[in-house]
Write a structure and sequence with these properties.
With 100 residues, this protein is mainly alpha-helical. 49% of the residues lie in helices and 0% in strands. The protein has a domain of 58 residues.
Length: 100
């Protein structure tokens, strides 16, 4: 039996505008572009936060190694701060590889 009524046009699942693309998910071009912009921004933000966390981890490891040299020393906060400030900045060779 042939269908007599026309099928409804496909709509974007995000904004309910007529669909102008094919494939899955069923989004229009504008929604796909907005998603990609948002995804790239979040990807950059995640990469930066992972890099920050890696730097903090490297700093903790370096300080732990430095203070392990004085296992029985009784140091005040000012002495600890002074020793930390006298330590040279770690070079890029000492830092763990960035996995972003």
């Amino acid at each position: 039996m042939p269908k007599t009524e026309a099928s409804a046009p496909a709509l974007c699942s995000r904004c309910d505008k007529p669909l102008d693309t094919e494939g899955s998910p069923q989004w229009c071009k504008a929604c796909r572009a907005a998603y990609q912009r948002e995804y790239q921004g979040l990807k950059k933000q995640l990469s930066e936060s992972r890099g920050y966390a890696a730097g903090c981890s490297a700093m903790r490891d370096r300080l732990a190694r430095m203070f392990a040299q004085w296992p029985s020393a009784r140091l005040s906060g000012a002495e600890i701060a002074s020793r930390i400030m006298r330590e040279p900045d770690p070079g890029a060779a000492e830092l763990p590889p960035f996995q972003g």
